[in-house]
Write a structure and sequence with these properties.
By secondary structure, the protein is of the alpha+beta class. It has 6 helices and 13 strands. It has 3 domains: 7-183, Jelly Rolls, CATH 2.60.120; 188-247; 252-282. It is elongated and about 80 Å long.
Length: 283
């Protein structure tokens, strides 16, 4: 018997949005083939925030727009406008959106799904509202304008498909996780509570040990501190997994072979539990 849990694990590299309320100050996506994730805040309705990237003709670029799973963003449904040379015009661009000279546009409207999506890498969760695969019609510079006519809210943009990180990014990327949890609407005091609890209990036990004469040398203290930090970070990750799974349950996928095995197991269990009943009735 086997139950297969299949979470999404996209190792996007976090990227700060910067000040990008104007087309001229659009956030630069350094490499459109690499997977990036931006967590941002649209301040008000009737405004847009801009991103730009370079692409070569024929390049396939996935673009995903999502919002936070918090209650305050439950009614926030942004969309985006993709702009660039060679793009066939689709949809009407709002008057407050700046467009590059001579560029075509494609308006992508957001659609709210029934459930949030679990992200295993952080771990975290988000609400995916738009997802397209864009084939660049020509070499050049392309723009994304994220917008909402009515209100602001927390949104994110993921672009690119190649999941790769440098050694430096593997070290610093986890430092962005607290800001992602704050973007989700969580209080940082609660995010770090499991780690603080582990550290407090561990230090209390070490101090008690010290007072009883079982003292540690410098190497022992360093090892104990490293162990507590490891357990504290593990407790934080486990707590965030629980929070994210409550917001975005992961489906269980069972293939045909496993389903047949489950059926056989069910028959054996039924036969096993029916035997004592029959014996009692005979007596």
């Amino acid at each position: 018997m086997a139950l297969v849990i299949v979470p999404t694990a996209n190792a996007h590299t976090p990227l700060g949005p910067g000040s990008n309320e104007r087309l001229a100050s659009a956030t630069v996506i350094p490499d459109s083939t690499k997977s990036w994730a931006v967590y941002a805040d649209l301040h008000n309705g009737g405004e847009a925030q801009y991103y730009k990237f370079e692409a070569t003709k024929g390049e396939q670029i996935p673009i995903t727009l999502y919002t936070s799973p918090s209650k305050q963003d439950a009614d926030f449904l942004p969309g985006f406008v993709l702009m660039g040379s060679g793009i066939a015009n689709q949809g009407s661009v709002p008057s407050y959106v700046e467009t590059p000279a001579g560029a075509g546009h494609r308006v992508v409207k957001g659609t709210r799904p029934a459930h949030a999506t679990y992200e295993a890498f952080a771990p975290s969760s988000f609400v995916q509202v738009a997802d397209i695969s864009f084939e660049a019609p020509a070499d050049g510079l392309y723009y994304i304008a994220v917008l909402n006519d009515e209100r602001g809210g927390h949104y994110g943009v993921a672009i690119g498909a190649r999941e790769s990180s440098t050694l430096y990014e593997w070290i610093v990327n986890p430092l962005a996780f607290p800001s992602i949890y704050a973007w989700e609407g969580q209080r940082l005091s609660l995010v770090f509570a499991p780690a603080f609890l582990i550290l407090a209990l561990g230090l209390g036990l070490l101090i008690r040990r010290h007072r009883r004469g079982r003292r540690l040398d410098l190497a022992g203290w360093l090892a104990a501190s490293a162990g507590l930090l490891f357990m504290g970070s593990g407790a934080t990750v486990a707590a965030q997994m629980a929070v994210s799974l409550l917001r975005a349950p992961v489906p269980l996928q069972i293939d045909g072979n496993h389903l047949a095995i489950l059926g056989e197991c069910g028959e054996h269990l039924t036969h096993h539990f029916d035997q004592p009943q029959a014996a009692v009735q005979e007596n």
